[in-house]
Amino acid sequence: DAGVTQSPTHLIKTRGQQVTLRCSPKSGHDTVSWYQQALGQGPQFIFQYYEEEERQRGNFPDRFSGHQFPNYSSELNVNALLLGDSALYLCASQRRGANYGYTFGSGTRLTVV
Amino acid sequence: GESVGLHLPTLSVQEGDNSIINCAYSNSASDYFIWYKQESGKGPQFIIDIRSNMDKRQGQRVTVLLNKTVKHLSLQIAATQPGDSAVYFCAENTGDNYGQNFVFGPGTRLSVLP
Lengths: 113, 114
Description:
The structure holds two protein chains of two kinds.
Chain A: E1 5-7, E2 10-13, E3 19-24, E4 31-37, E5 44-50, E6 53-57, E7 64-68, E8 74-78, E9 87-94, E10 103-104, E11 108-112
Parallel strand pairs in A: 2-11
Antiparallel strand pairs in A: 1-3, 3-8, 4-5, 4-9, 5-6, 7-8, 9-10, 9-11
Chain B: E1 4-5, E2 10-14, E3 19-25, E4 32-38, E5 45-51, E6 56-58, E7 62-67, E8 72-77, E9 86-93, E10 102-104, E11 108-113
């Protein structure tokens, strides 16, 4: 049973560019959350998707947007990249209404130069 | 605002000793907490959780204690092994009925000495 899978594993982008990160949730999970983890810090909540809609959002600018597809997979898009967007981006999935925590993927390491 | 923090950013213990990692949280309304372990190059891995109607929960070699009076969590690891070396985060659920939303602390790095 595959867990949460993310692609790509590493990515280098230039300031001002746009990036799309992808996530496939664990089998049986329908809710996907995205987190940003800067080096040496804890993960910060970006947003959560369920039934193809954004349900909750953290304190991130509109440059961060997402999408969820009918098969529950999800994308995170970041526009107008800044150097400060360099981080590990984590995807986490869960079955809606479950009384336990997320399952995390291994993340995408984004470097903005 | 809501926040979860850790008292000790780094902790070094001898192999075989017990480890205690502490965490303070600020939202007294939070009802669910998780400890995650993150190894280098990997995503956070669930270790153990506890709900606010409990003050202690035990797993295999791990115990979580919750003191709601002082808003404090701790993770105890018995007979610490080299494989326990990692960064440990406590996370507090601040989500609503639509789904969980965890606030993570900055983490504690646990180093196990041979």
